[in-house]
Amino acid sequence: MASEELAEIEGQISDVLRALANGFQKLEKIKDSNRRSRQLEELTDKMRDCKRLIKDFDRELKDSEYKNGPEINRMMNEKKQSMIKDLNSYVALKKRHTTDLENKRVDLFEGTGEGFAEEENVLLASNMTNQQLIDHGNQMMDETDEAIDRAKKVVHATVDVGTETAAALKSQTEQMSRVVNELDTIHFSMKKASQLVRELGRQVATDRCIMALLFLIVIGVIAIIIVKIVNPHNSSIRDIPGLAPPVPTRRLLFTSK
User: Fold this and answer.
1) Which DSSP helix (H) or strand (E) runs through 108?
2) Are 18 and 11 in contact (CB under 8 A)?
3) pTM (2 decimals)?
4) Among residues 113, 132, 121, 6, which one has the least CA distance to residue 68?
5) How many alpha carbons fall within 13 Å on the CB side of residue 77?
């Protein structure tokens, strides 16, 4: 069976998906643009929560994968893919509603402007003579030429900014490459230094063992010398070279004839 954490997160995701389904059904019935916009913002927040919960579900699934059997892991992965698919469908639905809402606002704005412009042009044309109409047309052409010139300047400025940005990005990329190479060199140096430190540690430990052994040998020899001096007739150290008592001289006895 799956862990309790997975089951709890799955339940929370199911609740959010259910709330999204109800929210979009409610959105279809709302006609006011402002209310539709607020409803879309609420649904967007719920989709963010759902995305965060799916990430938590995936992380918990990876952490408990070794505890679960293959069949449970397969089933949990299928559930995760299904939840991701549902969330993506709601994201696409939200984009469609947002686009429709923006198009309606643009159409409303442009339609109002065109109506006023057409009405104004009709009033002007009805009150103008032929010469006035020609002068007004020339003025509009001059204004259009000026607007085109301004647009060209904006385009050239945009191109210059884009070129400078590309050069800056290239320089930053090269700098990042140098930084990465330096970090690799530092990492290699630290690795070699760690190896040298370990080798020195082993050598120091070996030297300490040898010194300790020599110290024990010296202490032992000193102890034997002290014991021999204190008790020269000790038989347990009689056979040690240099410390054993001198062998008494044997004299041959000759019988006199």
Assistant:
1) helix 70-127
2) no
3) 0.40
4) 6
5) 10
Distance between start and end Cα atoms, the chain: 116
Domain annotation covers residue 60: yes
Closest CA to 30 of 93, 97, 92, 122: 97
Range of the domain at 218: 195-240
Cβ atoms 80, 61 nearer than 8 A: yes
Residue 121 and residue 34 in one domain: yes
Residue 111 lies in a domain: yes
Q: How many residues does the chain have?
A: 257
Report yes or no on 186 lying in a domain.
Answer: no
**What residue type is 236 in one-letter code?**
S
Give the domain-ending residue among 77, 102, 130.
130
pLDDT in tens, 104-142: 765 544 444 444 344 445 444 455 566 666 776 777 777
Which residues contact residue 19 at a Cβ distance below 8 angstroms, ignoring those fewer than 6 apart?
46
Same domain, 122 and 1: yes
